[in-house]
Design goal:
The protein is of the alpha/beta class. It has helices spanning 15-25, 60-76, 165-168, 184-196, 237-259, 267-276, 321-334; strands at 6-7, 33-36, 40-41, 80-84, 107-108, 116-128, 155-162, 175-181, 210-213, 216-219, 223-227, 230-234, 281-282, 318-319. 27% of the residues lie in helices and 19% in strands. The strands form five sheets. Strands 1, 2, 4, 6, 7 and 10 form a six-stranded mixed beta sheet that branches. Strands 3-5 form a two-stranded antiparallel sheet. The longest helix is centred in the last third of the chain and has 23 residues, at 237-259.
């Protein structure tokens, strides 16, 4: 694990977000990158779905407002925070069977404006690299398998799309916060999205003037990992957010060498990067987040569509790390403020 990366473990229910971030803000020494793979519906933090808020807060909105302040404090200390946008599409974890709900249930803290919200993608039409000089991980055999099935392959090419229920069993959380206003850093990108994409869910289901999420995305299906010597396949946005945390750690190392500073709060930089360096992102234009999961997926399900530029399915897109490193190096040479 990089010295600039760390994971925050919590049980994902209401008051834990506030108490965890509050505790972190009281520490003198903090990791430079935090990754959060937990979330709850904004409207279920204090009532309804989870009912586990601290008694100090008597409404979801007050709880979110207070917790956002703690996230903002961390960001002001130069900490980069990545959070999963959710695994239940635009409908969120508050969805009713067959998508009969009248509103969307955005996920928190994925919709918090003081952290970077991460969605998920997958690869289709893949081509496999069959070179003899590939790492061992490219030809791992499932232990005790009657068929000696290969667990992992190294992909050499494919088309990256928004993660889909048919392949991964879930869609990328995304949409617009119920309570949080739209931050300045993303206003231009969101405006372009609605200008380009005229066909949208009923306006009564969400508030397009509020915080849009995710900000970015990364592969979230068919990930390969080893734990305690056992090979496993892993997926979910709980995979995408840590991937981004690792990438930010790499970018931090370049920034530290040139400026002695970390990147800190990422979002203003990321939206600026997307405008000045389109090649820094793999723009995802295929897919949607209508279905909450593979079980409840009908024609009634509403959601958003991936599009050119930012969209509430995959954000600005997935990272092109090589181009991002070049961009950070160019900025540091010009002695520009990242924000």
């Amino acid at each position: 694990m990089s010295p600039y990366e760390s994971g925050v473990n919590a049980d994902g229910s209401g008051k834990i977000f506030y108490t965890t971030i509050l505790t972190l803000n009281q520490l003198e020494h903090l990791p430079q990158v935090l990754s959060i793979s937990y979330g709850d519906p904004e409207m279920g933090l204090c009532t309804g779905f989870t009912g586990d808020c601290n008694t100090t807060f008597n409404s979801n909105e007050i709880y979110i407002r207070r917790t956002n302040i703690e996230f903002m404090k961390l960001s002001m200390r130069g900490i980069s925070i990545l959070a999963a946008s959710g695994d239940a599409g635009a409908n969120g974890f508050g969805f009713e069977e067959n998508c009969t709900n009248k509103i969307f249930y955005p996920e928190y803290p994925g919709a918090c404006p003081y952290l970077t919200s991460v969605g998920a993608t997958e690869l289709i039409d893949t081509e496999y690299n069959n070179s003899e000089k590939l790492p061992r991980a490219c030809s791992v055999i499932i232990p005790h398998s009657n068929r000696n099935a290969t667990l992992a392959h190294c992909i050499s090419n494919g088309t990256e799309v928004a993660v889909d229920t048919g392949y991964a069993g879930f869609t990328s959380g995304g949409g617009f916060s119920t309570y949080i206003s739209q931050p300045v850093y993303q206003k231009r990108a969101v405006k372009k999205y609605f200008k380009l994409m005229k066909c949208q869910p009923p306006p009564s289901m969400y508030n397009r003037r509020n915080r849009g999420f995710p900000d970015v995305s990364a592969i979230g299906a068919r990930g390969f990992y080893v734990i305690n010597g056992t090979y496993q396949i892993w997926g979910g946005i709980s995979m995408s957010a840590p991937l981004w945390a690792g990438i930010v750690s790499i970018l931090n190392s370049y920034s530290l060498k040139r400026t002695t500073k970390t990147l800190g709060f990422l979002n203003p930089l990321l939206y600026k990067m997307a405008e000045e360096c389109p090649k820094c992102f793999n723009d995802i234009t295929l897919g949607d987040n209508k279905c909450p999961d593979a079980t409840y997926c009908t024609s009634k399900c509403q959601g958003f569509q991936a599009a050119r530029g930012w969209d509430p399915v995959t954000g600005l897109g997935s990272p092109n790390v090589e181009q991002m490193i070049k961009y950070i190096n160019r900025l540091s040479k010009k002695k520009k403020n990242y924000l």
